[in-house]
Amino acid sequence: MEHLPDGLLAHVFSLLTARDVLQMTSTCRALSPSSHAVKQALEYVITRRFTDVTSFLPSSSSHWPRSLVVLRGAELLYIKELLSKSTTHSYEEAASCSPNCVVVSRSWLGAYKKRCQAFEHFLLQFRRTKRQQRRQNASKKKDMLTLEKLKIAPHSSLAEAGAMVVCSHDALLPAAQCVGRSRRAILNGDVFRAITVYAPELRGFTLKSCSDCMVCVREQENRELEAEEKKRMRFEREIAGSDEMLELLQRKNGFPKGLFSPMDLAGSRRQQLAPHLSMNGRSKHATYFLVPKKWLNKWRKFVRSQEDEAPGPVLNAELVCLSHQRTIVPPYVSMFLSGFTLEQSLKATQILGSKPARQYEIVTFGEWEALYDRYCAEFAIGFDVVNGAYHWRTQECQICNYGMGGGPSSNQPNPRR
């Protein structure tokens, strides 16, 4: 190979890509990239084969290096030119595309354009006036650093992006899984074949003959069936056919329906606690408990989703004064039970500078029993409603304010009620 005439060596290089030439010069000691014959051959390929995109690099000028990096840059400018003249379609437009079009990775197109911009920026520094060319001769060291950053070898991120639409069975990834970085795009078939000469990492599937990998489709269906079965079993385990637990799961306002009397029966603008009368008109009491809203939201998400992370025990130690073993009630809860709306209660306490560390929901006695049986709780903070008035089951602390007397979780067993 090293004995070939210069013209024939240039012809051989014109049939190869920059990566092929790199491999040849690496394995053949006589074909050093710094040798005159190799530089002449590279100049021929750069100025003749890619003349449409390298017109600013004339063969008569000596200010640009005859190197493999410049050849690779010319290849990328050629690819950029192809992509700019070709229309790239989204996969949703497949019905209007030619059957000879090719399905490729949209991520690769985006990554490759950025790669092209880096090489283009490098090459355009040689488009200079004579005065600027003289200045450039004094900055060769800086240019060498730029050369080291531009790798000719296959780029790992581009190889990964080019195979985004390829499944583990070396077939087309199902459309349902082509989301995010794995989205599909459609290229003209001729453009695709021209690009893959210089970018072999780009994988594609002809539109007329491609179909989703059936193995992946069946695996996905099996995973979905397993997930649904797991979700169904979890729902049955958590709800257990209980209407109360189902109502708690679906509740959005933070308190049960029977806590307050209907507004039309109360005869007042302010909501009032229900009197809880028995069938014979005699008064009876109803018991309710406070549960952290954040914990209940996590529990609802756990019941409805496929996540494996359970909500854990109910942590509510901030509602107990450990010094006096009494209840510390957030001011907004007291206002809410006194007849104000939840929004009014929260707004009023915030104005007074008593913002709660967390919000609480009110659950019924039966709901609390079911939750405690499954998850336990630090304390059972509840109140009874008798004749339309509420009474805390554990006396409120008159010394400590909310957020002052609460302490870390207790390791001692706590009564459920």
Automatic annotation (TrEMBL):
Matching PROSITE patterns: DUSP (PS51283), FBOX (PS50181)
DUSP domain mapped to chain residues: 264-386
Leader peptide range in chain numbering: none
Domain F-box intervals: 1-53
Pfam family, one: DUSP
UniProt GO molecular function: cysteine-type deubiquitinase activity
Name this polypeptide is given: DUSP domain-containing protein
